[in-house]
Amino acid sequence: MAGGRRTRHTTAIVIDRTKLGESDLILTLLEADGSQGRAVAKGARKPGGKLAARVQLFCELDLLLAVGRNLDVVAEAQLTEPHATLRGDLARVSAASVVCEVARLTSFPDAPDTFLSPICSRALLACEQASDQPHLDVVVAAYVLKVLSHQGWRPVLDSCVACGEVPVTRFSALAGGALCESCAREVEGAEPVDATMLAWLEALVRSTFDQLLAAPVEAALASELLALVHVWAVTHLDARLRAYEFNLSV
What average pLDDT does this structure show over 62-88? Predict the structure, then answer.
């Protein structure tokens, strides 16, 4: 670079974009090592600019970054996976936006976690592959529950989280998972669940996206799973999930 400015190469997923001035963007990146980065894309809001089509939300990129004191600057960007079929489809954009929102809230600068980038990439692809709205709902719920489980917020599902007894008939994000009827009386807002719902919650954590996309699922059940995982995420991330709220309304 001119003036000997230090550069670095990375591969990343664009998980957020913020306007900067009249023509620039600040990109939030989920890098290949699972850490979160931020970089300025100069001129990225100019129609026809060299970066305009390369730094869209959901895109996967090879990047050359000029290292800055506070923010890096995009020197070169090459698309590796545009996830183009997400665009122009409200349901798919909404689902993918939840994936990126949760990726942003569960990744951190200088805190690599090699689980995060591959699963985010696979979830975005699954949003493209989903055949209908119920499977889109399942993809979103699975991604969120997989990431939170990986980071230590995995629900207890096979026995009562409070006393260890079975059977369980309720679920509480605040309590940490399934509850028997007796213990549920002490937990405000514990939701009723049946064996099918519990089996699906377990599948969201354990099954691959390919398996989930191939599994038959009823619309009402998928919608209920999506809502239940939303409460789980809000409770444990202690954050309002605006993209998730919008997705619930689609």
Answer: 93
Q: How many CB atoms lie within 10 A of CB 218?
A: 10
Q: Which amino acid is at 21?
A: G
First CA to last CA distance, the chain: 46
What length does the chain have?
250
Asked whether 107 and 34 are in contact (CB, 8 A), the reply is yes
For the beta sheet containing 191-192, the strands, ordered from the edge strand earlier in sequence to the opposite edge, are 177-179, 170-172, 191-192
Higher pLDDT, residue 33 or 51: 33
Please give the average per-residue pLDDT across 29-45, as a whole number: 94
- Helix (H) / strand (E) element for 177: namely strand 177-179
Read off the tokens for 179: 């509850």
Q: Both tokens of residue 237?
A: 């991330």
For residue 77 the two structure tokens come to: 């960007």
pTM value is 0.95
| 222 Cβ contact partners less than 8 Å away, ≥ 6 residues apart | 133, 134, 135, 137, 138, 141
